[in-house]
Design brief:
Strand content: 15-25%
Strand order of the largest sheet: 5-4-3-2-1-12-13-14
Order of helices and strands: EHHEHEEEHEEHEEHEEHEHEEH
Number of strands: 14
Helix content: 25-40%
Number of helices: 9
Oligomer: single chain
Structural class: alpha/beta
Distance between the termini: 12 Å
Length: 271
């Protein structure tokens, strides 16, 4: 069945391992989707400026809608802000303090994310800072994160390892009912408010557009995509997805992100 709304994660799902996609192919698909009154939603833990830059070359970029910061912010392709969910200063500051001192969180890198700028204590001259700028173009180095005054939407925590199950569990136990940590793949954990997620943001869009969850399709590869994939009528995990997210009616696609799994499925709907 052809969905009315298509949503996709970016890293590990829509993008290849180098963060690229076929611009010409996708631009043509967006035009074809618009003719069929099908909406396309980007759902990602990445910040707004990163996704806007990623799709800036497309002629049909205005038809996109961006759910960024793991659901904490929704903005249309024309720049209209539809919703924003900031963490109370005392809560995100308590989380940053604990992340920097709890033994189980040792060796983590912390970025706090505002709407238009992200902040870290990493020196601006460090290699890790420059690597992080690939995802956070407006990343700013500060001496003390607790002195940041921006409204914070998300905390990005990463380690130089891939298995962070124990860290996510420890965080959620410590901050139960206040904040939620979710695996973002590639050794990362995203921290948001408890009711903030890609799924809830997509559900809110559906209410605005008059589209039911069963009329939606979604693609993902990791823990922060799971609720979204379970919520929609057609949930797809790319072939390289974490096996733990293959539950219920979620389907594993035969192709991975390297082979353009999302684009292949869109082509089937456009036939």
């Amino acid at each position: 069945m052809r969905p009315k709304v298509i949503a996709t994660d970016l890293d590990g799902t829509f993008l290849d391992e180098n963060g690229h996609y076929s611009q010409h192919r996708f631009d043509a698909q967006l035009a074809a989707l618009a003719r069929r009154e099908m909406r396309f939603v980007v759902t990602t833990g990445d910040p707004l400026d990163h996704v806007q830059a990623l799709f800036a070359p497309l002629a049909n970029r205005a038809t996109l809608t961006y759910i960024v910061e793991d659901g904490a912010l929704t903005v249309t392709g024309t720049g209209e802000q539809l919703q924003s969910q900031a963490i109370a200063p005392q809560d995100w500051q308590a989380a940053v303090t604990w992340l920097k001192t709890a033994p189980i969180m040792a060796d983590c890198f912390v970025i706090v994310c505002g709407r238009d700028r992200a902040y870290t204590e990493l020196p601006a001259t460090s290699q890790r800072f420059h690597e992080s700028q690939a995802f956070y173009p407006s990343l700013t180095s500060v001496s003390n994160l607790l002195q940041v005054t921006d409204a914070i939407l998300k905390i990005d925590v990463t380690w130089l390892k891939t298995d962070v199950v124990a860290q996510v569990a420890a965080f959620n136990q410590h901050f139960q009912n206040h904040l939620v940590g979710t695996s973002s793949g590639l050794g990362g954990m995203n921290v948001t408010l408890p009711l903030v997620s890609k799924a809830t943001a997509l559900l809110a869009l559906g209410r605005i557009w008059g589209v039911l969850p069963e009329q939606m399709a979604a693609f993902g590869d990791s823990g922060n995509d799971h609720a979204m994939l379970e919520m929609v009528g057609q949930g797809f995990a790319v072939a390289n997805a974490d096996p733990a997210i293959i539950t219920g009616n979620i389907q594993r696609l035969p192709a991975n992100n390297q082979l353009g799994a999302v684009g292949q499925q869109i082509d089937q709907w456009l036939v």
